[in-house]
């Protein structure tokens, strides 16, 4: 089992550099001003927050959100990326109609606009929708750590909490600069530091050495993640209002939509740290 997980991680590491956004593009967005002519970091983060709200509203997988998040896509471009990710990751029976997705997201365009942009996006990525994501690394790192722990210690690390932290990080453009493998390991390392569990820290160190993750990079991203999660957990940080999305859907449409769309009733906060 461990050999299989290591093989999967090595395969992802070989692919991740091809899926990274260009640093020059990210810097261009960060330096842009709110003049209505260019994409800014604030607008990008606002758009990603909306995609997170849609993810929870429809009850989609975190991998769908992680795949959909792109640093330079706004408006119906972002929704097109989101819809492509949904169709790529989710089960067919859970994929909403384009009309429902547009209506609930409140964007002012029609299905033909969405389909046209979807075609453009597919051509841009050479029809290769699936990409290496931080969520995939998070899953594999977590599984490796669990495999190396005694059964009675496996509940110490809460994957739901790690997952929530990753989604929060996707909402800030700065974390697009981190390699998915490093971002995922930084989140796990930070969480394990909070747990103050030496056994788990040894597992992180083994992962860091095995996959040759630079210690300074790991520390750098841990510090940024820690600051952002503190801000994200505060009342000052604006979060997606999934309940507001529900009010958009009429009674008739609600009966037509699948039950799975409503299994998430609110945006969950990051769970409290468990005590080992």
UniProtKB/TrEMBL annotation:
Q: Which Pfam families match?
A: Cyclin_N
Q: Which SUPFAM superfamilies match?
A: Cyclin-like
**Classification via Gene3D superfamilies:** Cyclin-like
- Write down the PANTHER family for this protein, in alphabetical order: CYCLINS
Report what the protein is called: Cyclin N-terminal domain-containing protein
- Which top-level group of life is the source organism from? Eukaryota
Species assigned in the record = Nannospalax galili
UniProt xrefs under InterPro entries: Cyclin, Cyclin-like_sf, Cyclin_N
The lineage is: Eukaryota, Metazoa, Chordata, Craniata, Vertebrata
Domain Cyclin N-terminal residues, every copy? 68-129
